[in-house]
Amino acid sequence: MQLCPSFLRAKPSIPEMDFAGQIEEVGVDVDPSQGLKPGVDAFGSIPVSEHLKGYGALSEYVVLDSRHVCIVAKGMEMPELAGLPIAGCTALCLAEKADLRHGQKILVNGAAGGVGSLMTQMVRNAVGEEGRVVAVCSREKEQLVRELGAQEVFDHRTPVPVHKLLAERYAGDKFDTIIDAYGVQSLFDNCAAFLKESGSYITVGVAFDHYTYTSMLLAVSRMLRNVLWPRLLGGTPRRYIQVASVCTLDGLQKLKDLCEDGKLRVPIDSIWDFENVPDVGTPEVCGEALDVR
C-alpha cells in the first residue's frame, strides 16, 4: 500500500489490514452459520478495496463485510490471530501451487518471516517425516526455524552467496520444489544448480530494493523476465510461478482449522500497546521482526 499513488487513497488513511478482536455488533443479514455474534472473538483482514477508502486495522473499531471475518481458533491468543490472515493465506496459496507431497525435499527461502514461518510448518506437515525441509534465514532465527520443522538451515548473511552454498550441498541431490517467501532474484537466477529440471520455483514475487516507484518498476521487469525470457536466450531453465494471494473466508477457515489441529502456530516477535504503534515502523523494530503485534 505504500506504493499506491496518493490520489487513489482516501485521506486520512488508517494503516494495516489484519485484525483480531471481540465482536460488538452483527448486521441482520449476516449468515448465522458463521457463528458471528456479539461477544465472540474473531479475526480477519480488511480487503484492499476498503483499505483504499481509508479504513484500517489500527483503530478502536473495525466495520466490514462478514465475508472477511472468521471466529477464532480455540486456544489461540489475539496477538497470534492478528498475525495470521494475509501471511497465512499467502502461505496457503504457495502450498497449493507447490503441490506438496509426502517424502519430497523442499527448500524454503525467507523461512523466518511472517509468510515463511507459516510456510515452513505447512511444508513439514505435507512432506512428513520421510521428507526433508531445508530453510534459508538469518543465523539469529535458526533455532526458531528448526522448531518450526526445518532439518537444515542456511544463513543468508554469509560472505559466500547462499545459492553457491546450496549448489555445493545439493548439486547431486536436488530439490523437488523451491518456495521463496521473500523474493530473492539471485536465488532464482542460479536455482538450476540445485532444483530438479521438473521442479518449480514458487514465489511471492521479487523483493523491492527500496520502497520507491523505481524499485517497483525494476521488480516488475524482473518478474516479467523470469516468466517470459526463453531458455534459449539465457533464461533460467526452471519453471517460475508467482502467486497473487487474496485473503478469503475459505482461507481464514482453513488457517483456523490448522491452528486448532495443532499443525500451525504464529511466532510473535513482540507485542506493542496501541499508543506505542507509531514506534513499530522504525528500522530498529522491524529490521529482524517475524511478526510485530
Automatic annotation (TrEMBL):
Keywords, in A-Z order: Oxidoreductase
Entry's Gene Ontology cellular component terms: mitochondrion
UniProt KW Transit peptide keyword: no
One Pfam entry name: ADH_zinc_N
CDD domains: MDR1
An annotated Gene Ontology molecular function: oxidoreductase activity
Top-level division of the source organism's lineage: Eukaryota
Ranges of residues in domain Enoyl reductase (ER): 21-280
InterPro entries linked to this entry: ADH-like_C, ER, GroES-like_sf, NAD(P)-bd_dom_sf, Quin_OxRdtase/zeta-crystal_CS, YIM1/Zinc_Alcohol_DH_Fams
PANTHER family from the UniProt entry: ALCOHOL DEHYDROGENASE RELATED, RETICULON-4-INTERACTING PROTEIN 1, MITOCHONDRIAL
Protein known as: Putative oxidoreductase, zinc-binding
Organism of provenance: Cladophialophora carrionii
